[in-house]
Amino acid sequence: MNQLDRILEITGRPTPEDIESINSPFAATMLDSIQNGKPKNLRDLFPKASDDALDLLKKLLRFNPNKRLTAEEALNHPYVARFHDAANEPVCDGPVKIIVSDNEKKSVSEYRDLLYAEIIKRKKEVRNKMATGGKGVED
């Protein structure tokens, strides 16, 4: 929650449309408790940053996931494009599915344990898939 508070201190409170876009009643309820703050000017916060850096930051901090840059779009942004080699970087075929429900409140350690368990499970699946040549293992 602290991360969200920090972002909203900069971006201001999301619009009702933006809140609806996250499709999470729990998150919407959490956002009801956040005061309606005025967005801060990124140039004031980061006076030495380049225009490209500020543009990338602004586009990555958009609350609405439909308006926020995807990872691939961010890699093609002028600020980081020179570090991006599309021919030599893997691309995820679809959206990443988070196994933790946004509608349940958990402690930090519970979130961490769930995510670590999922990582271990996925690693085993990948190793299994590699060992069997991709046969008999679901994606």
Write up what this structure looks like.
This is Mitogen-activated protein kinase. Keywords: ATP-binding, Kinase, Nucleotide-binding, Transferase. GO terms for molecular function: ATP binding; kinase activity. It contains seven helices and no strands. Helices cover 48% and strands 0% of the residues. It folds into two domains: 2-92, Transferase(Phosphotransferase) domain 1 (Transferase(Phosphotransferase), domain 1, Orthogonal Bundle); 106-139. It has helices at 2-11, 16-21, 25-32, 42-45, 51-60, 71-75, 108-131. The chain is mostly helical.
From the structure above, extract its key features.
139 residues; mainly alpha; Transferase(Phosphotransferase), domain 1; 48% helix; 0% strand
Topology:
Layout: H1 2-11, H2 16-21, H3 25-32, H4 42-45, H5 51-60, H6 71-75, H7 108-131
Organism: Hexamita inflata
Keywords: ATP-binding, Kinase, Nucleotide-binding, Transferase
GO molecular function, one term: ATP binding
